[in-house]
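Record type: ASSEMBLY
Status: queued
Input:
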Amino acid sequence: MHAKSTHRSLLVVGSVALDDIDGPFGLHRDLLGGSASFIARAAAYFTRDVAVVGVVGDDFPKQHLDDLSAVGVDVTGVEHAPGETFHWVGRYSDDLSSRETLDTRLGVFASFQPKVAPRHREASLVFLGNIDPVLQLDVLEQTHGPLLVAADTMNFWIGGKRAELLRTLARVNTLLVNDEEARQLAEEHNLRKAAARILTMGPSSVVIKRGDAGALLFTGEGVFGVPALPLSDVRDPTGAGDSFAGGFMGYLAYAGDLAPDTIRTAMITGSVMASFAVEKFSVDGLRGLTTAAIQERFDAFSELTRFGSVRL
Amino acid sequence: MHAKSTHRSLLVVGSVALDDIDGPFGLHRDLLGGSASFIARAAAYFTRDVAVVGVVGDDFPKQHLDDLSAVGVDVTGVEHAPGETFHWVGRYSDDLSSRETLDTRLGVFASFQPKVAPRHREASLVFLGNIDPVLQLDVLEQTHGPLLVAADTMNFWIGGKRAELLRTLARVNTLLVNDEEARQLAEEHNLRKAAARILTMGPSSVVIKRGDAGALLFTGEGVFGVPALPLSDVRDPTGAGDSFAGGFMGYLAYAGDLAPDTIRTAMITGSVMASFAVEKFSVDGLRGLTTAAIQERFDAFSELTRFGSVRL
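Status: finished
Output:
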């Protein structure tokens, strides 16, 4: 894919973490996690100009950053701070349909102040991972007029820093959230109405990630929906939404335009990367994919959703 | 649509009920409900040869049957028995995302013994609504080699009459269930694996109705998925799955073949009719639709799911 890429650059700001994950496939400790890890890895399949801004602690295995570098991700913006890396401990139900957080140790992430190096300030696309909206805005202030700003957020910020979040959203083009976050942000249960309300807050597009119910895209022009590809083997849903975001942003960087049809295609590449991610633990499902394998799964989405028009 | 119809006949066996429904739009009493009511009304838009076998009690307003007759449904197979009509009382949560059954009075439905009149025994398509699987099989014994037998079932029969249900399923071509029913029947949480298991029980296709997550079709040839159309105004989800079944069966009767692509199209017409049904109470959302309105919503599903192929 790189040969055709227009090489628009993507800057990803988010968490880099270590996860302990328990569930039907046993306890796995110290897995690479964090939104930026999944987003960057997924996006790197579509554009070779991906940079991460994040922070890790003393305990973070150097190998993980080497792995990201090896697939072309610029990790020079990942700060090393004294202390423990952000650590999430969670347990999935036997059917993987729900999870509970057993422990969250923010470690060095608690005092994370993202610094965008001069070489990253001209990024064409910026993805603001799920961090304090004050920091998200601060990142934007450090960049120089990106073509597209996309962002994620979560219940903690929607409830606790609403005013700050609204200030950030005013400068966000695409918001990617799950359905509960969309409902909470819009204070409206109906997803269509919720999306319409969010479209008045700044974003010109809202992507609602719904796990095994697929994903929806709302813009001023209408709505696009894609079902999730039903998979036989799902081992770890962690990072599915971030992998979606990575495939989505990576494709936009690759395509080089933000036309409505390009964004629809990006919804599919996002779905493709999420479907790979959940088949293995951590970012393992995103490792070593060939262009042919990605194309094959894209085509599987075409086949999944194909039907003819009729004249009744 | 009737002009092009091949007029394959559809026989629907199921409940005809009166519902009391409470929720965010207030309490509505004595609404027409029951699976056969929704299925027949939805199907009647696609083929004029729809007959219902069911039972009602002394309290059943004649107007409801007259209304069905007026849209071409043959209600001569609806038996009148002394006693109360099947009555369901339910309450939806404020956001319509869940409901609880407050009361179920089976009334005359408790001793329902479906009798298929000679004029209905040659039906091309038979839909076995959610009744005792022993009765479903008995209905099949009364018919003469229909081209397609479709059936619904529910947790009560899956748990309580599993052996009988499996005997019936052996003669069913298409099973239409929701995701929990599919999981319970297959004893498998993963939907893809659950569908694969059900496909070994007799049916050559399994339709999984997932409410606002859309619907999936599994066959030996693969999987087809359609998202639900996000709607601004949902007033009453009752009968959505049955309206889907009606649009699905009606289109198959209309199209006159059971080719894989025809079944995919039927998944869309099913989704179309479900989307109309939930916008109003009872069968009101299915009343008075023009061919143009149905076509417009079909086209909305085309637009909802449209994306181009790419060569990565």
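Annotation: The two ends of chain B are 41 Å apart (CA to CA).
Annotation: Residues 260-277 of chain B form the longest helix (18 residues).
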